[in-house]
Specification:
The structure is a homodimer.
Chain A: H1 5-13, H2 17-23, E1 25-29, H3 31-40, E2 45-50, E3 65-66, H4 69-76, E4 84-89, E5 105-109, H5 114-126, E6 131-135, H6 144-150, E7 158-162, H7 165-174, E8 179-183, E9 189-190, E10 201-206, E11 219-222, H8 234-253
């Protein structure tokens, strides 16, 4: 297979939201991310492009398209091109009839930064969860930046999108997740002492600048901060919630 | 005051490690970081440069140097120039005779990424700590990237540097911090169940790729990860340790 002009412009188009929307493809860059993609969803991959050095590092059964370093850098537009990319279909959302298996659900409301999104995907997997929900206005999970920063973790997650908080909360309730917690830097129940925080709940992290939207009937939860430094990064807040759930699980199971 | 050629080249030199080492100055960019600098150490500031729109947002008592957007962008070399910067002296390290006040000490061993460094500074302050220790080989705390990503949090911390882990551990012991914990992704005591993890201890986070160095006699501590996604980002690991200390403090003090 050869890197035709058609493929070149296909790959370049995947660096724009419009291009991804039109083709329903995504561009997955970097060795670690490509490996995650192959481990999670090999059937979605259309083809791989790599530089000669990375040829043997690839888990791909079919022959990748090998190009020079210069050609590769021209394709990706990143300063430090990583020498390997895969073009794949965007994984479909799970059907609404497929019940989540996680003890609680984790969600994002209009999270804007692909770096935060990626970090949250990785942390979610490390914490043993399988689903990530998000509202419209959240960064595109299939952008090259989101994939690079998650190291491809999103290929192993079930992502579900909703137009807004309201429809998300409705779906959660339908699935039996009845406690809705909105994270809040200023007021709410202490995340370390709320007994039912992870009991069939939906926990929502908000937009970096404006926080979580409003949702009548939802509870608020906060991370206590002894220092008076204003608010943690969204990814740090997510990490604290996710590993508080891990801690409770370990303590409850009596593992040392 | 005017933006002379001399000042222009002084500012540009602060974007290199060599330039910062020579002048012992640093360049603090962005409104939030500049505000932190003024709140923490106004006496260190030499001058401010800003674009006309940001003139009134500045807390600076003396007149800043106002320049056009184009001139500002040329100074900083960042894609999204933030319209305000301050040139300041690098805060001196506290004298070795000054005892730390924190219940435990947090340290970095050859941490390489300024984004991780900055996030850790912010999280440390939010968790109510005041000191951050680091070994040689750690990213420069006074680089423009470190300052931007910490939003200037390092100006409010006491930073202490050491040639290596050994000399750092010696100093900690001298100060009465006798339990040395090296964080480790693969083996060690569970961070959620180790009773004396924060009891006059020194907790060390390691290099993103090679982890913490070796130190005879030190204990190892790990974050349990139910998911089998390989290793958290260094900043996420730091966040989990720091807020586990916050949690224990809140639980011990009986606050709800």
């Amino acid at each position: 297979m050869e890197l035709t002009r058609k493929l070149q412009s296909e790959i370049r188009a995947l660096h724009t939201r419009h291009g991804r929307k039109k083709s329903r493809l995504c561009c997955c860059e970097g060795l670690r991310a490509v490996r995650e993609l192959f481990a999670a969803a090999p059937e979605l991959v259309h083809y791989c492009v790599c530089t000669p050095e990375l040829r043997t590092a690839l888990p791909y059964p079919r022959e990748p398209i090998t190009v020079s370093n210069r050609e590769f850098a021209a394709l990706t537009g990143t300063v430090n091109a990583q020498g390997v990319l895969a073009v794949s279909e965007q994984p479909p959302e799970p059907p609404a009839t497929l019940l989540p298996e996680d003890p609680f659900l984790f969600a994002l409301d209009r999270l804007g930064d692909p770096g935060n999104f990626g970090t949250i995907c990785r942390t979610l997997l490390a914490a043993g969860l399988h689903e990530l929900w998000f509202t419209g206005g959240t960064v595109d999970p299939w952008s090259d930046k989101s994939i690079r920063s998650a190291l491809g973790a999103q290929f192993r997650l079930r992502l579900r999108s909703f137009p807004d908080l309201n429809s998300m909360a409705q779906q959660a309730t339908t699935f039996g997740y009845r406690n809705i917690f909105l994270t809040d830097p200023h007021h709410g129940e202490n995340c370390f002492t709320t007994p039912d925080l992870f009991d069939h709940s939906l926990i929502v992290i908000g937009c970096e600048s404006t926080g979580v939207g409003e949702l009548p009937g939802a509870r608020h939860t906060l991370i206590p901060m002894p220092g008076n430094f204003e608010s943690l990064n969204a990814a740090q807040a997510a990490t604290i919630f996710l590993f508080e759930s891990v801690r409770r699980h370990f303590v409850a199971s009596g593992v040392k």
